[in-house]
Design brief:
Distance between the termini: 24 Å
Largest sheet: 5 strands, parallel
Structural class: alpha/beta
CATH class of one domain: Alpha Beta
Strand content: 5-15%
Number of helices: 10
Strand order of the largest sheet: 5-4-3-6-7
CATH topology of one domain: Rossmann fold
CATH superfamily of one domain: HAD superfamily/HAD-like
Order of helices and strands: HEEHEHHHHHEHEHEHE
Shape: globular
């Protein structure tokens, strides 16, 4: 099921809260724990509540609360494929809405806006590139490592709500053990591993190619070509499962066939289509 638990159901423990707060120090030279430097000065966030509700009031998230997306079978391209390459977020895992909640909360502590449609358009972009690009767009100087760690910790808090995307899970279960699988993601290895472990799918994949493993992100084909080489399968014999335009472009540049996983708003009935 899609949708989100109430903030009180997140199950955050005091130990988890302490771990989150430990990563909330401001840039070098700031004094005190739990502080961030913003364009308006240093603001204390150490006593913030663990409430995520205020970060779920967005068009896609509200729509998903009203009605879960319908399930439709994927139409695979014709061919005999010797390996499947899967993106993780938004393809295997219905994690994009959870990532957006984490982004909104982490960036909000630095007074940085991140439009929901832009977030989905940037699907597949590594976290450090997102923060760096937002810094440039908004004239900010958010510390990439600190904000990245904060966002990832917030996402891990939301993992109990994570579900697999049924249409993709169907093909994983059908072909597991018959052909090799790889995950090719713009997320960190820690994030990908945590997501797949939460879904009890980690053991289905022969290799993981994550943000730390390559230099050029999607739509460059480097990550997909690296996965094919590790699996010892020719690129033309690989089928890519992707939810983002950048991922589809990367697959095409690698000489691989692909199948597109519809985003949440396309999987909901026509009466509730996403309107930007």
């Amino acid at each position: 099921m899609w949708g989100f638990a109430d903030a009180n159901d997140l199950g955050t423990t005091e130990a988890q809260n302490a771990n989150i707060r430990a990563g909330e120090k401001g840039p070098i030279g700031d004094s005190g724990e739990g502080q961030h430097r913003t364009t308006g000065g240093v603001r204390d966030v150490g006593t913030e509540g663990r409430d995520f509700d205020s970060y779920t009031d967005t068009p896609v998230l509200k729509m998903m609360k009203r009605k879960p997306p319908s399930r439709k079978k994927l139409k695979l391209p014709h061919g005999s494929f010797k390996a499947y390459l899967f993106d993780c977020d938004g393809t295997i895992a219905n994690s994009m809405p959870l990532h957006y909640i984490a982004w909104k909360k982490a960036l909000g502590e630095w007074n940085c806006e991140f439009d929901e449609k832009l977030f989905y358009a940037w699907g597949g972009m590594p976290i450090v590139e997102i923060i760096s690009t937002l810094n440039e767009r908004h004239g900010l100087s958010m510390p990439v490592e600190i904000v990245s760690d904060r966002k990832e910790r917030l996402y891990l808090e939301l993992l109990p709500q994570l579900k697999a995307i049924p249409e993709v899970l169907e093909h994983i279960e059908a072909q597991h053990g018959r052909i090799p699988f790889a995950v090719v993601s713009g997320s960190t290895r820690e994030s990908v591993t945590a997501s797949l472990a939460s879904l009890n799918l980690l053991d289905r994949f022969d290799i993981l190619v994550c943000a730390e493993d390559y230099k050029k992100s999607k739509p460059d084909p480097e990550a997909f070509l690296l996965a094919a080489a590790k699996l010892e399968v020719a690129p033309k014999a690989c089928l890519v499962f992707e939810d983002t335009e950048m991922g589809i472009q990367a697959a095409a540049a690698a000489g691989m066939a692909s199948v597109r996983i519809p985003p949440p708003w396309e999987r909901i009935s026509a009466s509730q289509n996403y309107v930007g």
